[in-house]
Amino acid sequence: xxxxxxxxxxxxxxxxxxxxxxxxxxxxxxxxxxxxxxxxxxxxxxxxxxxxxxxxxxxxxxxxxxxxxxxxxxxxxxxxxxxxxxxxxxxxxxxxxxxxxxxxxxxxxxxxxxxxxxxxxxxxxxxxxxxxxxxxxxxxxxxxxxxxxxxxxxxxxxxxxxxxxxxxxxxxxxxxxxxxxxxxxxxxxxxxxxxxxxxxxxxxxxxxxxxxxxxxxxxxxxxxxxxxxxxxxxxxxxxxxxxxxxxxxxxxxxxxxxxxxxxxxxxxxxxxxxxxxxxxxxxxxxxxxxxxxxxxxxxxxxxxxxxxxxxxxxxxxxxxxxxxxxxxxxxxxxxxxxxxxx
Length: 342
What we know:
By secondary structure, the protein is mainly alpha-helical. It has helices at 2-14, 17-32, 39-54, 61-70, 78-87, 91-102, 115-129, 132-142, 162-172, 176-192, 196-213, 219-236, 239-256, 267-277, 282-289, 293-306, 312-321, 324-328, 335-341; strands at 149-152, 157-161. It has a two-stranded antiparallel sheet with strand order 1-2. Helix 1 packs antiparallel against helix 2, helix 7 (115-129) runs antiparallel to helix 8 (132-142) and helix 14 crosses helix 16 (293-306). The chain is globular.
């Protein structure tokens, strides 16, 4: 049973959602044959995690609401319900659940196997509600997990790097430099361990923090983060995150829509070409743009075809002739790239 649950957790963690649904059902079938296990509860958390990524939380919302109403003395499902309301845009309902748990500084939540998951959910709700006072409390509770992953139980679900949640809490408190440090650490850990959904979320929240900071130098980095997050969200079927990214990018895209690039190059291809002209390797470009080297290689192939160049040198000459570097290069290297080079 533990092995089956672990396989489900890893499928969710890596973004293999079709596998995760099948494996979660198999885990439930095994658990149902073993008296004393909370197989239904484990299945509920795993399905909740899956449906959240798929943008289908409205399907599980009534079930979680029923659990909360039928067990008013227990707070075990209340953080999940608060998060469901948040994801569905029902912020007043989310605040009602959140206030119930935050009234005594979250001390009513028992420090059992569900505590970390509950704190993770509540931290995400707190950021959505922009509650800086409670963010400070939650940050102190979760800060010891910096550099580690956040888990529900030991083999139920994994939320990826704790630093992503800590970064969002710092952003809620407008502690920008501290938030950035956490987000950079989260990107590194999630990418290293292949946690594609968690990586996409971290990129989105990091970009949101940069845009909220209102520093003009952050805009290009934010755009790169959002594009990389949108790519993975689309590839993995993370519809809820994809919708939030689209909403965040809409004002940027409206301004960029009037820009035309030679040879039919897209904005991203023009940007990659400007880095090629600067002599950067695919790996260096990938670090700048928060994408994989394979993605950069695909862009380079398309660039060579569109510009009728036989190699990178000819493509660089094309970029210089059309002054692409002046039009597309950010004013400085991204913090992530600087950190990676250190």
